[in-house]
Design brief:
Shape: globular
Helix content: 25-40%
Oligomer: single chain
Largest sheet: 8 strands, mixed
């Protein structure tokens, strides 16, 4: 499969999610423990009008455990949105999972106005029957709670908070994470990855002995670009893609941010560029709700691009499309008339849960500019 390089510009981000949960559990900040909290919810700051919406990641890697779906579940709220991200996640020397946060995540959250709280793992259990794998990792809860209080009183944008937080706190939290894994290794008698690589990488993020966002960008962006290019020439089994091009996007915004993202598929249709994310159910009728939300959240930035150019062509007409495939007969394009949804659901004998989900997806496609949703059989 070929790769298509594109450029885009985002001035502002406006999006109305419709697949959001009806209610979110709220916890008082004094009792909030990130390790016991659900994957997303509300934090009560003292009154019903004064809440923080939060989501948490289990790893700094964006492709694991659906962190975007978790943020999606809070994106409809008219309140500050915070996402808690472990700065490093090592799952033991017996695995290849030894990830750290990169500049793309920092940039993505800035553009979507989401406040980052960096966290570190300080305890874990040795995975039974192994000597080099750990599980049930525990974040430092007090450090997270302290930053939550600071965010609750912060009066500026997420861009300002994230910039200050990284500049002031990145190095100390990073070193806490490295020390945490040393402690886990010693106390639990379990092998973890050597801290040498993490410490050497941290030095690349510094200038004159201090953490520098510019150096962080320059050191981690090439790796992200490499990952984007690698993803752009790789067809995942469950993406159910046709024989079109993958797309690598370089997206800029008026704040000076730069975003390197990939779309599952980019192709031309009636002189219009289709930017498509694809989610496939290998056994069922529809992909899981988290899978769908992950795809929708990824399309928010693409749908908010004002300009797109490919090579020498500028101001290209485009739409974004979420393709959902499963064990289905026929195809359904959203937005559409309710009667079309009824007929499609009846023909495929979809459950009430699936019918409701499709109705909400139809509403989401109706309310958001440049968004289409295509529901079809695996070979559609």
């Amino acid at each position: 499969m070929t790769n298509l390089s594109l450029e885009g510009f985002v001035r502002d981000v406006r999006y109305t999610p419709c697949l959001s949960p009806d209610t979110l559990n709220a916890r008082d900040i004094a009792q909030f423990d990130v390790n016991k909290a659900q994957a997303y919810g509300l934090i009560n700051l003292g009154s019903s009008e004064n809440n923080l919406a939060f989501s948490k990641w289990v790893s700094p890697k964006r492709t694991r455990s659906y962190p975007f779906a978790r943020i999606y579940n809070t994106y409809h709220l008219n309140t500050k949105k915070v996402t808690i991200i472990p700065i490093i996640k090592d799952e033991g020397a017996g695995t290849q999972n030894n990830d750290r946060i990169n500049f793309i995540t920092f940039s993505w959250m800035n553009l979507l106005n989401i406040y980052i709280i960096l966290a570190w793992y300080e305890d874990a259990e040795k995975k039974p029957g192994t000597t080099d794998r750990i599980t049930n990792q525990i974040l430092n809860a007090e450090g997270v709670r302290k930053k939550l209080r600071e965010v609750s009183q912060y009066q500026m944008t997420a861009l300002h908070w994230n910039t200050t937080h990284f500049e002031k706190d990145f190095e100390s939290i990073y070193l806490n994470a490295v020390s945490g894994y040393k402690k886990i290794s010693k106390e639990k008698n379990v092998a973890v990855h050597s801290p040498k690589n993490h410490l050497q990488t941290l030095e690349k993020f510094k200038v004159d002995g201090r953490f520098s966002l510019t150096y962080f960008k320059e050191a981690s962006l090439p790796r992200s670009l490499e990952a984007a290019h690698r993803e752009s020439i790789t067809t995942h089994l469950l993406e159910s893609l046709g024989g079109n091009a993958k797309g690598t996007f370089r997206i800029s915004n008026y704040l000076g941010g730069m975003y390197y993202l990939t779309a599952d598929e980019v192709y031309w249709e009636n002189d219009q560029l289709i930017i498509q994310e694809s989610k496939n159910s290998s056994k069922g009728k529809l992909p899981s709700e988290d899978d769908i939300k992950d795809g929708l959240f990824k399309l928010i930035l693409f749908a908010n691009m004002e300009e797109v150019s490919v090579d020498e062509r500028t101001n290209i007409q485009f739409i974004t499309r979420l393709k959902l495939t499963g064990d289905l007969i026929g195809s359904l394009f959203l937005p559409c008339a309710p009667d079309d949804i009824f007929g499609f659901c009846a023909e495929n004998r979809l459950t009430q849960t699936h019918q409701k989900r499709i109705a909400l997806l139809n509403q989401e496609a109706s309310e958001n500019n440049k968004l289409q949703i295509w529901i079809t059989g695996r070979h559609g």
